[in-house]
Write a structure and sequence with these properties.
- By secondary structure, the protein is α+β, with helices and mostly antiparallel strands.
- It has eight helices and eight strands.
- The two termini are 23 Å apart.
- The model has no long low-confidence stretch (mean pLDDT 89).
Length: 262
């Protein structure tokens, strides 16, 4: 759902964008660095930061004068996860473990956050050579199996937003053109599965299926990932079946009834 800008507070929008930028920054940032990054005057940024620091949403190092995300956001995030995500994670975790048991590959649960896939939960694969990732990490939706599995069943304006944000080439196989992305998404809607063979990281493959809630909305995706060499031929077909079954099982537990349209 999109919101008419005239019904929102511009300063609050700037503050939220600033918080997201600080959360994504690899290091603490100075006032000047933050102002440059957001193309705002230092005076405006300083006033926003002052407000956020007062609420413990941002912390300022008194010696270096640099800013970072504060503990208050961690507290809010923990509460949100406990209230909204507990049931979801409880439903998904046994299925993730089952996927690892039957495939040996790392299994992951992801949701959409803006134009990224956010990984909520992961279970490490049992193979000696396997993919490692961390809950809370993000990846661009256009370059991941989970991202495209969700994008294929979401509102068209989200696809347009992904295209406007830019599709940077991460490997020689990354989807970087709108037409190519839309053809991929149409195929995913037809088959119910997304397959990634080295589009985000060279040599790493993934298979993902969408997850639907009781209202038929795509709310997440479940995936497995591992070396491309193991995602070939008959083995790939078996992996496809397992992932599709996993997505359907979680969807059913969330109250989704009947087969989705393809």
């Amino acid at each position: 759902m999109t919101t008419d800008p005239k019904y929102t507070l511009r300063t609050l929008r700037k503050g939220l964008a600033l918080l997201e930028g600080l959360a994504e920054a690899a290091d603490d940032l100075t006032l000047t660095e933050i102002a440059d990054r957001f193309h705002e005057s230092p005076t405006v940024v300083f006033r926003i930061l002052r407000t956020l620091v007062a609420g413990d949403y941002v912390w300022r190092d008194p010696e270096s004068k640099r800013y970072r995300i504060g503990l208050r956001l961690w507290e809010l995030g923990t509460r949100a996860q406990n209230r909204m995500g507990r049931r979801f994670l409880e439903v998904a975790r046994p299925v993730l473990k089952w996927l690892v048991t039957v495939t040996g590959e790392t299994a992951a649960l992801a949701v959409l956050r803006g134009t990224d896939s956010l990984y909520l939960d992961l279970v490490d694969g049992s193979e000696p050579l396997r993919v490692y990732a961390e809950p809370g990490s993000r990846a661009p939706v256009y370059a991941t199996a989970s991202g495209k599995a969700m994008l294929a069943f979401r509102e068209p304006e989200l696809i347009a937003r992904v295209v406007r944000a830019g599709m940077k080439r991460l490997t020689p196989l990354t989807v970087t053109r709108e037409g190519q992305l839309r053809r991929r998404l149409a195929e995913i809607r037809r088959t119910g599965l997304a397959i990634n063979l080295g589009e985000r990281r060279t040599g790493i493959a993934a298979v993902a299926a969408p997850i639907f809630n009781a209202r038929g909305e795509c709310v997440a995706a479940i995936s497995i990932s591992g070396p491309v060499a193991r995602f070939q031929g008959d083995n790939l077909e078996a992996l496809r079946r397992h992932v599709l079954k996993a997505g359907e099982e979680i969807s059913t537990k969330l109250g989704h009834g009947g087969a989705k349209e393809r």
